[in-house]
Amino acid sequence: MKAYTYVAPGRFELLDKPKPQLQGPRDAIVRITLGSICTSDLHIKHGSVPRAVPGITVGHEMVGIVEQTGSEVRTVRPGDRVTVNVETFCGDCFFCRHGYVNNCTDPHGGWALGCRIDGGQAEYVRVPYADQGLNRIPDSVSDEQALFVGDILATGFWAARISEIKPDDTVLILGAGPTGLCTLQCVLLHRPARVIVCEPAPERARFVREHHPTVEVVAPQECLSFVRQRCERGGADVVIEVAGAGDSFRLAWECARPNAIVTVVALYDQPQMLPLPEMYGKNLTFKTGGVDGCDCAEILRLIDEGRIDTTPLITHRYALSEIEEAYRLFETREEGVIKVAVHP
Ligand SMILES: [Zn+2]
Ligand SMILES: [Zn+2]
Question: Ligand 2 mean position to 99 CA, how many Å?
């Protein structure tokens, strides 16, 4: 089969590899019907994910059809259409039982697919702990509708869930990239009084205005004065930082009102400063991330009910044979690309 492979730092190539086989009783083999490219894939390509293993097939956003299951797999059967979770988790350890699946203590747990073991920019993938990692897609939900459930939509859903959003809150979201846009949809499910999105790129700001006319959009340079002047409590009640830019962490806590919740989903290249003397008396609560991708069944139900729709994020479509070009476009952000869909 064809598999897009991390050959060496800076180099991915579409190679011929053998089809994956079951390795344990809790594994499943999934025939991939649609995949995508994530910013984390670019981080692997550029060598900033040291635990990524050269030679692995990359890709951790995909949906497909179960082809084969191990003897202990109970929740899915061959022929089922499924989403694949970015995280591998055992379901049995202390953290899994509490829903903190990102912290699963299993040696194979965490972000393994497309990083430490073969992932999904390929025709087939082996999914360990298939009962945990796979969720059946309702018949009325398309592959494109379900494509982001296992990663960026799980992240947005989790970020909104842990942010304790209340009905009269103003929620500020920093960043309207793919994960920011998923977070926005999940924040809107909580029906806060007001939602503000801060985004520097004009085409992404336009995307938010077009798809979410009730949401206010500001540029980073005006964000702080905007919330100080226009929010009655002097800042946002909840800030969700999804941008991960050089100064967005500082902007996040500065835009928060006293006693606000600041949820940090962003993954930074550099350490961030927590200048406690400056924030003394502001009494903020910080929540930091690593998504716990354990709500996929609920997310699929919300998609089925028409309450979440991330298909507008798919701006470009490619065949697996054209994946090189898909990466180039995604990385250069040309043509207003938000997400690409890759058909094996
Ligand atoms: Zn990802
Ligand atoms: Zn576990």
Answer: 9
Predicted pLDDT at 35: 98
Task: List the chain domain ranges.
Answer: 2-151+292-343, 156-288
List, for residues 219-255, the tens digit of each pLDDT value.
999 999 999 999 999 999 999 999 999 999 999 999 9
Which ligand has an atom closest to residue 94 CA?
Answer: 2
- pLDDT tens for each residue of 101-125: 999 999 989 999 999 999 999 999 9
Span 156-288: which CATH code? Answer: 3.40.50.720
Write b or e for each residue in 216-236: b if 16 or more Cβ atoms lie within 10 A of its Cβ, otherwise e: bbbebeebbebbeeebeeebb
- The pLDDT value recorded for residue 290 is 84
- Distance from Cα 150 to the centre of ligand 1, integer Å: 9
Determine the topology of domain 2-151+292-343 in CATH.
Answer: Quinone Oxidoreductase; Chain A, domain 1 (3.90.180)
Which ligand is the nearest neighbour of the Cα of 152? Answer: 1
Phi, psi for 145 (deg, rounded to 5)? -65, -30
Cβ proximity of 158 and 99 under 8 Å: no
Query: How far is the centre of ligand 2, averaged over its atoms, from the C-alpha of 214 (Å)?
Result: 40
Q: Which ligand is nearest to the CA of 43?
A: 1
CA neighbor of 100 nearest in space, from 87, 113, 112, 82:
87
| Closest ligand (CA of 294) | 2
- CA of 291 from ligand 2 middle (Å) equals 14
